[in-house]
Amino acid sequence: MAYSNKVIEHYENPRNVGAFGTSKEVAARKDIGIGIVGAPECGDVMQLQIKVSEEGIIEDAKFKCFGCGSAIASSSLATEWIKGKTVDEALTIRNTQIVEELSLPPVKIHCSVLAEDSIRSAIEDWKKKSGASPASTSPTPVTQHA
Amino acid sequence: MISSNSPTSNSPIYLDHAATTRCDPKVVEAMLPYFTEMFGNAGSRNHQFGWQAEDGIEIAREHAAKLIGAQAKEVIFTSGSTESNNLAIKGAAEIYARAAAGQTGRGHIVTAAHEHKAVLDPIRRLMREGFDATFIQPPADGVITAEMIKAALRPDTILVSIMWANNELGTINEVPQIGRLCHEKEIIFHTDATQWVGKMPTNVEADQIDLLSWSGHKMYGPKGVGGLYVRRRKPRVRLEALQDGGGQERGMRSGTQNVSGIVGFGKACELCFNEMESEGKRLLAMRNRLETELKKRIEVTVVNGHPTKRLPNISNISFGFVEGESLMMGVREIACSSGSACTSASLEPSYVLKSLGIGDDLAHSSLRLSLGRWTTEAEIDSAIVMIETAVNHLRRLSPLYDLHKEGVDLSKIVWQAH
Ligand SMILES: Cc1ncc(COP(=O)(O)O)c(C=O)c1O
Ligand code: FES
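^ Those are the sequences you sent over. The predicted structure of the assembly is below.
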């Protein structure tokens, strides 16, 4: 299976790699949400950290990923997409959009699911820590595939 | 003269010789006339075309037999190791069964959990047909010893099937000792020697083997042709054919022979016989340098399988905290394979690595690099640098590497499933 050029490009120049500090440091910070999700399918791990303003805007995002090239590209793309969005907007991002943007083949769909889940999980974590009320409007998926 | 088939300068470095090999140009050259001038059917007994084909096959049989220390009559040509294994295992089980078809308790078979699927699946089928089997769990170094076999034998054991060298690890099982044990106990011994023959000296007499499978395309011959050695004396081994028809190959493998393929297979056997020793030394030196350099340059690098009881050309290495498929993507200029789950259609890490108990994390992080006849020092040098660069790139991205640096024990973490 050949990789799409976009996957290769993200692999070679991943956006927003990193973290806002050691796991202890970030755990204590109220403005940071952390999502760590694993793909039970293949034992991969994705870590997303978001830095959220008091208005609920994602000011910055950082990721780390142990997974295939498609998982790396999916998480790199996810950080690009969520930066500057409100948390509610970020929650509308669907893995299917990632699949489309990166031209992922069917066997790599679960890698994009990992990215969607990491967004969700990081936002939940931020909400819990910051005491923000749950999203006022439930997220409306932009595209809805099976 | 046929055109050279040396790799072009912009093709990737081929380090996947355990998957398949480039045909030696001398093999291709030997085969070509058998497509055109000498196209006969070896079964045509009454004209020159038939005789030429038959001569080609019988010369190939001599070369094949010589490579493994057998008599020519003891070699059956097949379509490759998958067929040889199926014929050996199912064919022997049928003949040596202790009860008729349709009954249970037909006999016990011993094999190991890290065998190739072309051994495991025929045995699993036999289990559905009234046979029992034991799949020995290999130790951490991957080497199956005669002691382990002995412990698995039962009074009703009819067949032991243990590969000579493992295709993912290159580890070498104690074949001569297992052969001796089986002969003492009068149990048929089959070995899948696909990765071994042509690279290491083989003598079916001294090594006490009854049935041995090997394949052309793993030793610079064509794909779709292989051999099965079937012992003719002490004991005379009989097999039930899987394929009936014209009675070719002593009735054990009916069907018009693949003459050009068999001729190529014979030529490949002849070349290996002559080049094996010097080639083995050369590959071992390069393989060892590859491993030494990678371990020196990259922390938490583990060579899987026994350190020395290994073929000279295969290296299975795990680079901690880096996922194998992404690593292969990072070294797109190297053609190799990985035991990682992401690379497999089933999304399961390699069952071979898992059976050694090496842990999912290291199985996910493994590369198999296998060298061959045309591998050069320069290619190994480039491969070392490319792998080092890619591992460093990926560790910068790896959450597991951060945790490792923070001193977290990764085996204790339970990841949140989604
Ligand atoms: C150990 C082993 N057995 C069997 C096979 C199957 O051989 P073939 O491709 O000739 O059917 C292979 C190769 O994939 C192998 O490495
Ligand atoms: S993360 Fe395993 S296949 Fe993509």
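Residues A 39, 42, 44, 67-68, 70-71, 108, 111; B 342 surround FE2/S2 (inorganic) cluster (ligand 2) (CB under 6 Å). The longest helix of chain A spans residues 109-130.

Shout if you want it in another format.
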